[in-house]
Amino acid sequence: MNTDPYSSPSPFPSNQAERGGPAPPGTESAPPPPAWWRKTDGNASTSGTIPWLAAPLYAIPETTKLLMCGGVAGAFSKTCTAPLARITILRQLQSTGAVAGWAGTAKVGIVPALGKIVREEGVRALWKGNMVTVIQRLPYSSINFYLYENIMDFLEGEGAFVQKDGDTKQSGDKSVRAGREGQKGLGWDVARRLVAGGSAGMIACTCTYPLDLVRTRLAAQTTVKHYDGLIHALWVIGSKEGPRGLYRGLAPTLAQIGPNLAINFAAYETLSKLAKEHELGERMPPAMVSLACGSTSAVVSATATYPLDLVRRRLQMRCAQDRGHGFVRVFKDVFKAEGLSGFYRGIIPEYAKVVPGVSITYMTYELLKRSIGVDTGRL
Q1: Alpha-carbon span 106 to 93, nearest angstrom
Q2: Lowest CB count within 10 Å: 155, 224, 233, 238, which one?
Q3: What letter does residue 162 receive in the DSSP assignment?
Q4: What separation in angstroms does the CA of 292 have from each of 286, 355, 367?
Q5: How far apart are CA 312 and CA 323, in angstroms?
């Protein structure tokens, strides 16, 4: 039995007797390289590991695997929900006059809106800007998930900066990490998840923000074309609006992303912990539990932070001469012109996008981690 919870578990045990069969080629005598400082849970289950998938990745550090899982999960989810994401952006901007042909379409439903895009721009237009979204989502989601897990480790007294002797306790026949023993779904753990989720989200957003701004402007293009693609958009915005133009709307974005992901991560992991405590996974497929927890957390976080998201989208569409219109000014303008309901313009397609989007992201992330043998016991 492995009694060191900080050792890197592998889907392939270290000796022939434990393996019950041949190890992957070239791995008979060498353990996999250790992660940088993220260590997987010594008691995490690897029962869902897919041998043919895990074998080629056996020698890859766990840090790299976790980054891959987060990036692929985010990119896959965004691609699945790209048409709904585009409708949300068009809805948020239709009253600004920045979107040609969409003025006065506030009451058009999701399906008619999809049909309007197909008729006027073609089927491929449903995924307009999605390549930029994927390019942005890969590093964003990788950083986001990875930092969340590591910040949680740090807040729980684990990780590279606080590893010390006697940091584990024996519980029955298992060696458990001190920070995880007796961990419940509620209580101080919720506060830690809020801090970790908000911090990870803001750092990841800052690192990849110019790509998000370009994605918004590309998605807002209809029959009037201003940019020819990612590189052209970056060059035009940088040359006409200056380097600061690439970060236009960053402050309200962080103000929205921080609480959104704080609530999202905290709600999801809290619901997951409660589901495990009540053994829901034994009565329904784990994937269904992930989808249910993800859907609920998405609705809660989206409702709480949608007005901030709407204001940041409008700030991203401001021209260089509108620099005096900051967050407070736009917020007041929206309330004066459209009332309280104006802050929730496009919320229905947002729900239709974010609920499956968040659910798919979490489910894919968990599935990938289990499949390649880096289940961390969290998320």
Answers
A1: 11
A2: 224
A3: T
A4: 10, 10, 15
A5: 13
Q: List per-residue pLDDT tens for the chain, 379 residues long.
A: 444 433 444 444 444 333 344 444 444 444 433 444 444 444 444 456 677 666 676 678 888 888 999 999 999 999 999 898 888 877 777 766 666 667 666 566 788 888 988 998 899 988 887 888 898 899 999 999 999 999 998 888 765 434 444 444 333 333 333 334 445 545 568 889 999 999 999 999 999 999 888 888 887 777 777 888 889 999 999 999 888 889 988 887 898 889 999 999 999 999 988 888 888 877 888 888 889 999 999 999 999 888 888 887 787 776 434 555 677 888 888 888 888 888 888 788 788 888 999 999 999 998 888 888 787 777 7
Distance CA 369, CA 374 (A): 5
The domains of the chain are located at 6-35, 60-159+183-371
CATH fold label, 60-159+183-371: Mitochondrial carrier fold (1.50.40)
